[in-house]
Amino acid sequence: MRPTVARFAVMSQKLPHLTETIILAERVHAALVRLSGGSPVFTGYNEQGKPVEGHGHAHVFCESNLGLGGEITHITIYASMGFSSEDKQALEDLREIWGGDDPVVRLLLHGLGRREDFGGLDPERSQSPLLAKSRTWVSRTPFLPTRHHKVTRAGVPKVDATGLQIGSPEHDLLRLLELAGLPAPEAVESVPCTSLGGRETPWASFACRRSNGEGRRSAYGIGYGFRIEFAEPVQGPVAVGYASHFGMGGFEGEDKLQWKA
To answer: Is the pLDDT of residue 101 over 70?
Structure first.
């Protein structure tokens, strides 16, 4: 069975901040594309140049897990389609990330495995809360909707059968969760921020746009946060929306809140 997870520790003296997730994730992605010679699991395109079906190609997640000031402590690469032997070699060769004038980010590969091998809520054991199993999940990086509010010609909001405005952030979240194969949540509530270094950090503090690349764009250019509760525990990752393959729209298990950085 192919591994689907690669977990790294960030070893640099000056650690990048979680609010820079999308910036660092893009650089990690570019490095893996180069090291792998353009493997579909990292590019998201097959040998014919067509997009890989579904979202089975790599997601790059950044985490801040050890009670610091919100610095990125871990990078987790997840791809449900699995890593080939060549892909594994590229991951093993990933040791440094260069970013122009920015400091070099050094990485140490903890290991390759499955979600169950790395998921959990214990930071002392270097577990990934993004890969935990939980009924309740809360935003850690901003959810970036891909659709706009829908209104009639008279300016009246268009609503669905539940009364939600079509194209609103919550409506788009539910749509994207369904497309990702996740069950419909029993409850959804808005969350205004995350906690970094013991401080409330609003979603507007996060970089929210990719510097390059194709694909659907964020509808609003700003982020939103939610707490979602499922009827039964769900195995992470839960990540949807614009740039979800680059660390955006990431959720963590609710129990993580008691020790969050």
So the answer is: no
Q: Give bridge partners of residue 97 from the DSSP assignment.
A: 105
For the question of whether the overall pTM of this predicted structure is more than 0.85, the answer is yes
DSSP track, 193-246: EEEETTEEEEGGGS----SS--SPPPSSSS-B-EEEEEEEEEESP-B-STTGGG
- The torsion of the CA quartet 3, 94, 108, 97, rounded to 10 degrees, works out to -140
83 domain residue, yes or no: yes
Could you report the per-residue pLDDT of 184-233, keeping only the tens digit for each? 999 999 999 999 988 999 999 999 988 765 545 555 568 999 999 999 99
Separation of CA 152 from chain center: 34
Please give the residue range of the domain that contains residue 182: 5-116+128-259
Judge contact between 9 and 76, C-beta under 8 A: no
Give the helix/strand (H/E) hosting 171.
helix 169-179
pLDDT in tens, 122-141: 877 778 999 999 999 999 99
Classify residue 237: in a domain, yes or no: yes
Residue 195: strand pairing partners: 200
CA distance 136 to 127: 18
**For residue 66, what pLDDT is reported?**
74
Task: Please report, in angstroms and rounded to a whole number, the separation of the first and last CA atoms in the chain.
Answer: 34
What number of residues does the chain have? 261
Distances (CA, A) of 34 to 27, 31, 37, 94: 11, 5, 5, 10
In a domain? residue 27? yes
Q: Would you state the pLDDT for residue 102?
A: 67
Number of domains in the chain: 1
Is 60 part of a structural domain of the chain? Answer: yes
